[in-house]
């Protein structure tokens, strides 16, 4: 159980500084709408409807990257979701920003410029140091309270995430609350029946670390994606190699080989590997091959095969809790979506506690017409989800908890 205060504890009629995570894919310079807007809109709407004066902080990209942009487009998308005006000021804590903040009326909402445009924001430092920055010291006196809703950035020790709880009464927003509860369930909850984890995607290094850290808190791991192939490689099959221009396997193999071998050795009984794989046949259609029949390492495999999906589905139906990290195949291409969608469908049909994490994987839910309501929780967090699964502390959550302890 989290020990932070939430916006239920926020007294009426306050000037509230709120941290969101609106970090989004950018196409042609424009932010693309996604689940983060819809989720954070709930917190923003609730605060505005309660009559608070609401100033929002968020980041986009990182300096030097293509996706490092202003938040003006984000304000428009957010306004559509909140269903009220969201003003934007191209300044974070300079005079222009402070003027706009002080002019806010009850129920009005203002988005400040990308926090990562400020020098004080990014260097990872202790909350105490961050609380002393000009950024925090300038903004804080203009507010009565700070709300952190940016669960998906809570693993970063940035000024807007860890500095304010040391100087303002601080609360968790709705996204922070729900993400925290669902994502820490594997570490904190007792389930009556089997706990299953679906492990896939391209970030094998991350997920193999999670498998190692979770150890016997998970009864079985269903593998696919890049990690799945690397485990098959460790089991002696000629797959999980970079072929035809792919650059996903060999480096991650070199980095994780020992860990994979030791996880396989110690938890082999709990690990289910694909028995068949899918690839692009010469006619361009999906073709499949049994893993035992693969004799040479010359094809790129893009999904688990249908025999594997048929074996994974009952394993899910018998589970009391299922956590998903990463897709079992390249689901963006319909020909290679069977593994990912088959597993998601089995979860949706089952009355288990389920969490689907990872921005890419959760996109499969809408792409293939699944109902988000059939899952207990669809996380909008990447790095923070991984850390929560392993029980690693999140600095921005820790300062919220400490702030509650001081009150
Ligand atoms: N065998 C495979 N070969 C290449 N790509 C694969 C394979 N299997 C799955 N993928 C890709 O993995 C991606 C999802 O992986 P990723 O590790 O990024 O997971 P995520 O948890 O959804 O995302 P994030 O952590 O970035 O929010 C999908 O886009 C899918 O195309
Ligand atoms: O999009 C995310 O996962 C978070 O906003 C963190 O972004 P970062 O990895 O650039 O710090």
From TrEMBL:
GO biological process terms on file: gluconeogenesis; glycolytic process
InterPro entries, A to Z: Phosphoglycerate_kinase, Phosphoglycerate_kinase_CS, Phosphoglycerate_kinase_N, Phosphoglycerate_kinase_sf
Cytoplasm in keyword set: yes
Enzyme Commission number(s) from the entry: 2.7.2.3
SUPFAM superfamilies recorded: Phosphoglycerate kinase
Pathway note: Carbohydrate degradation; glycolysis; pyruvate from D-glyceraldehyde 3-phosphate: step 2/5
Cellular component, GO annotation: cytosol
Protein localization: Cytoplasm
Positions that bind ATP: 332, 358-361
Keywords: ATP-binding, Cytoplasm, Glycolysis, Kinase, Nucleotide-binding, Transferase
Superkingdom field: Archaea
Binding site for (2R)-3-phosphoglycerate: 36, 116, 156
Residues annotated for substrate binding in this entry: 21-23, 36, 59-62, 116, 156
Molecular-function annotations in GO: ADP binding; ATP binding; phosphoglycerate kinase activity
Presence of keyword Isomerase: no
Catalytic activity: (2R)-3-phosphoglycerate + ATP = (2R)-3-phospho-glyceroyl phosphate + ADP
UniProt similarity note: Belongs to the phosphoglycerate kinase family.
The protein's assembly and partners: Monomer.
Protein's recorded name: Phosphoglycerate kinase
Organism: Halorubrum lipolyticum DSM 21995
Gene: pgk
């Amino acid at each position: 159980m989290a020990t932070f205060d939430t916006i239920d504890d926020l007294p009426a009629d306050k000037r509230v500084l709120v941290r969101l995570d609106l970090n989004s894919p950018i196409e042609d310079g424009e932010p693309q709408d996604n689940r983060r807007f819809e989720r954070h809109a709930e917190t923003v709407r609730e605060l505005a409807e309660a009559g608070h004066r609401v100033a929002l902080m968020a980041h986009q990209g990182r300096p030097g990257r293509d996706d490092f942009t202003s938040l003006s487009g984000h304000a428009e998308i957010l306004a559509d979701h909140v269903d009220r005006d969201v003003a934007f000021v191209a300044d974070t804590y300079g005079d222009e920003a402070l003027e706009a903040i002080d002019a806010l009326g009850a129920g009005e909402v203002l988005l400040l410029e990308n926090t990562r445009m400020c020098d004080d924001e990014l260097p990872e430092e202790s909350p105490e140091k961050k609380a002393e920055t000009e950024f925090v010291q300038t903004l804080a006196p203009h507010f009565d309270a700070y709300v952190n809703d940016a669960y998906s950035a809570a693993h970063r020790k940035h000024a807007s995430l860890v500095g304010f709880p040391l100087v303002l009464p601080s609360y968790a927003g709705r996204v922070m609350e729900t993400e925290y509860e669902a994502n820490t369930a594997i570490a904190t909850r007792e389930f009556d029946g089997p706990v299953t984890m679906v492990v896939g995607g391209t970030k094998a290094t991350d997920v193999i670390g999670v498998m190692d850290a979770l150890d016997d808190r998970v009864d079985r791991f269903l593998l696919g994606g890049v990690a799945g192939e690397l485990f098959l490689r460790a089991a002696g099959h000629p797959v999980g190699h970079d072929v035809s221009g792919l650059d996903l396997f060999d480096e991650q193999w070199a980095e994780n080989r020992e860990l994979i071998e030791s996880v396989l050795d110690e938890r082999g009984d709990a690990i289910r590997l694909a028995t068949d794989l899918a690839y692009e046949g010469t006619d361009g259609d999906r073709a499949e091959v049994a893993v035992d029949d693969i004799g040479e390492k010359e094809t790129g495999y893009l999904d688990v095969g249908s025999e594997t999906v048929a074996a994974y589905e009952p394993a899910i139906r018998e589970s009391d809790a299922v956590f998903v990290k990463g897709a079992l195949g390249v689901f963006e291409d319909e020909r290679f979506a069977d593994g990912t969608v088959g597993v998601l469908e089995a979860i949706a049909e089952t009355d288990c506690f389920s969490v689907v994490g990872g921005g890419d994987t959760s996109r499969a839910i809408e792409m293939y017409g699944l109902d988000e309501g059939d899952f207990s929780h669809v996380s909008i967090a990447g790095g923070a989800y991984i850390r929560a699964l392993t029980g690693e502390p999140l600095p921005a959550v820790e300062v919220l908890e400490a702030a509650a302890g001081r009150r």
